[in-house]
Amino acid sequence: MTLRTSAVQKSGGVGKTAGRRRSAGPAREPRATGRPPDSARGAAAAPSAEGHGALLDRYDIAILRELQLEARLSNTELAARIGISAAPTWRRVRWLEEQGYITGYRAELDRRKLGLGVLAFVRVDADRNAAAATRELEEAIRRLPEVIACHYISGAGTFELQVMATDLDAFSRFSLDTLLNLPHVKDLHTSFSLGEVKAGAALPLAHLDRPKAV
User: Fold this and answer.
1) How confident is the model at residue 214 (pLDDT cuts 50, 70, 90)?
2) Which of 15, 105, 139, 182 could serve as a FRET partner for 99 with CA atoms 20 to 30 Å apart?
3) Is 52 exposed, middle or buried (0-12, 13-18, 19+ CB in 10 A)?
4) What residue segments make up the domains of the chain, in order of their start?
5) Are the CB atoms for 138 and 48 separated by under 8 Å?
6) What percent of the chain is modeled with pLDDT above 70?
7) Lowest-pLDDT range of 109-113, 147-151, 163-167, 208-212
8) Which CATH number fits domain 110-192: 3.40.1650.10, 3.40.50.1970, 3.30.70.920, 3.40.50.300?
9) Class for domain 15-108, per CATH?
């Protein structure tokens, strides 16, 4: 096992609703996924999600952009931000969820306050000579809570892992006792984050606003 240390930038690992950190705040009305309101006064009319085509329109893109930045928005607040009435806003959010554009809502935690001071990027060299062996290793990695993200990569190595640990001693034990004992693993190459430049970034959506080429 070789260890090398370098300053790295954390990428958004797990697919998620990400954005600015925020406090829990006071109790609020249900977010945009709650029951549709009975009335929608004072807002502009817009096409509803009923009979929605396969492509996203500007209202859908606006909803995605706002929910990435603040997933706890109530349906009323979201409707006000995108400029349409509350009922079609709720239907559009439901449509985006059902079509898989929105895959979930989750809290964003501060790992340092929780005692997870080490973030490591681990390249795993493994046997690639059999599909069954690769799938076995994938399943073993998915069962490890310390591994917060895993990518199947090109070039040198087989997988790139993001691993969290309380300190270097804990990471060393995890590497020796767990990672190196995973099925079909041959070697590990590790880099440690020396500081986060950008983390939990929202997905870029500007390309969805551009006119489609004819």
Assistant:
1) low
2) 139
3) middle
4) 15-108, 110-192
5) no
6) 75
7) 208-212
8) 3.30.70.920
9) mainly alpha
